[in-house]
Structures are given as C-alpha cells and as structure tokens.
Design goal:
The chain contains eight helices and ten strands. It is α/β, with parallel strands linked by helices and 254 residues long. The chain has a single domain, classed as Rossmann fold (3-Layer(aba) Sandwich), CATH 3.40.50.300. A six-stranded mixed sheet has the order 6-7-8-3-9-10, sandwiched between helices. Strands 2-1-4-5 form a four-stranded antiparallel sheet, with helices on one face. Strand 4 and strand 5 form a beta hairpin. Bound molecules: adenosine-5'-triphosphate (ATP) and magnesium ion (MG).
C-alpha cells in the first residue's frame, strides 16, 4: 500500500488499544499512527471512539490494554502534563481557556515563566504570545486583551498558538470547527495549515468531512470502537470519503 512506508518517520504508533468505561467497550483493539509532519483526519459517527482514542494519547484516559510508541520509544502517558512534556498538545472545541484572563496568560496557562522572586515574566509572555500568534497569521491588537473579547476563531488561534510556542510535535484538535462561523472556520483551517508548515504533526477530528478533506493528507475512519478504513487523500475524492464514513457507520462487522 502507498501509505505503508518503513517505520522510521513515525511520530506516534498506538497498537491494539482497548478502553472500557464500565460496561461500555469504547475502543476495541485500535492501531493508529501518525507520521512526522503528517495531518491525519480522524472521522466517524457519534460514539465511534474518536475522542476516547485521542484522550488516551493525550494522557486524559489510560487504556486497559495496548502500547504507545512515541518517537521510537515505548511510553506510558499517565496525565495530560506527561503528554505535554512529550510534545503532545490538545485543542478542544470547548476550549479550556480562561475567558477573563489576557491572551498572553492563556497562551502560557499553567506554564508561566517566572523572573526572580517568583514574579511572572509578563514582558516575555507578552512578546512570545504575540510572536506565536503572528506565526499563525493572527494579528491581535494587544496581548493584554481578555480572551472573552475574541471571536471563536481567535480563541482557537490562542489555543493553537500555545501549542506552537511550546514547540509541540503533535497537535490534536477535537472538533475545533464546531459552532464557528464560515469565516472563523476558514481562519482555523489556515492556522492548522500553518502548523503543518512548521513541520508539526496534526490529528484533526471532525464530523465535517469538507473541513477534514481540505487539510488532511490521510483519513482514518472509526465506527463502534474500531478502525474501519484508512485512506490517503490521493486514494479518494470528497464524495468517496463521505461514502466511506457513512458506509462504515452502517455496516455491521461484529
Ligand atoms: N467518560 C466516559 N464515561 C463513560 N462512557 C464514555 C465516556 N467517554 C465516552 N464514553 C462512551 O464511549 C463511546 C465512545 O465515545 P467517544 O466520545 O470516544 O466517541 P466519539 O467518536 O468522539 O463521538 P462524537 O463524534 O460524538 O464526539 C461512547 O459510547 C461514549 O458514550
Ligand atoms: Mg468526540
């Protein structure tokens, strides 16, 4: 297959991942991989297991079974903090931003630089947050503006700038375009393209196949806790991909 290269350019390799929530068998032996610099669209119907799979990768859930290899080494990711240390950043649709804090504080949230005597280094935060945002092509008037004053697209920009500043190797976006206006969706998709230009790997989860198709190079389709299809962009058209997603959701393989 065209997408079966050797493993040397793999950033993440998840193998045989299983996850139960009580009696709900949410992820059923999934293999999932992301290459260096690759943008993967993770698709599938409601309840397919997409968020659960990526929450295992970002340390929010632990799998009952399965292995994660990151940059060639087997890792255990026990918390979101451990995932961040590896270089895995996550952007959610209901973003965990602090709306009344400044843009700069939100970029650095939980990882603020300090000067002597434990004082926050505001100048550094201001400069670095504006730099990360302008690298995304987002020009905001001031790092002091509270995040609540930004558009939905601007807020996603702040979350993505955070990943950029902390030199993420992998950015996972779970439904980042939900509830945004058409213009804002365009902005967010541009931010994601920018991550790719920086060589950062991206996993983009969406119900919107148009959004996924416009940015991803490869697509993984899940249904009922399993991976049903994997295709590269060259192998499909938008219509064909749409068909695959619908077909995966209705075909009963058990
Ligand atoms: N914290 C949880 N506790 C119990 N069950 C859960 C939990 N999180 C997810 N589930 C269940 O696991 C299954 C997979 O859910 P998941 O959220 O991973 O799907 P998804 O593909 O992200 O769906 P959506 O597209 O709706 O976001 C579902 O049956 C869901 O109800
Ligand atoms: Mg989900």
């Amino acid at each position: 297959m065209s997408n079966e290269n050797n493993n040397s350019d793999l950033l993440v390799k998840m193998t045989n991942i299983h996850k139960w929530f009580g009696r709900v068998y949410a992820v059923r032996g999934v293999d999932f991989q992301v290459r260096q610099g690759e943008t993967v669209g993770l698709l599938g119907d409601n309840g397919a297991g997409k968020s659960t799979l990526i929450k295992i990768l970002c340390g929010y859930h632990q799998a009952e079974k399965g292995d994660i290899i990151f940059e060639g080494k087997k890792v255990r990711i026990n918390s979101p903090r451990e995932a961040q240390k590896l270089g895995i950043e996550t952007v959610y649709q209901d973003q965990a931003l602090a709306p009344n804090l400044s843009i700069a504080r939100n970029v650095f949230m939980g990882r603020e630089p300090v000067k002597g005597m434990g004082m926050l280094d505001k100048k550094l935060m201001d400069e670095e947050s504006m730099k990360a945002l302008s690298n995304l092509g987002l020009r905001l008037d001031s790092p002091d503006l509270p995040v609540i004053t930004l558009s939905g697209g601007g807020r996603q920009g702040v979350a993505i700038a955070r990943a950029l500043h902390f030199k993420a190797k992998l950015v996972i976006l779970d439904e980042p375009t939900v509830a945004l206006s058409v213009k804002e969706v365009g902005e967010v998709l541009e931010f994601i393209k920018q991550l790719r230009k920086e060589g950062i790997s991206v996993v983009f989860i969406s119900h919107n196949i148009y959004h996924a198709f416009s940015i991803a190079e490869r697509f993984v389709v899940m249904a009922r806790g399993k991976v049903m299809r994997e295709v590269t962009k060259e192998e499909v058209t938008l219509d064909k991909l749409n068909e695959l997603v619908i077909e995966s959701a209705i075909v009963d393989i058990d």
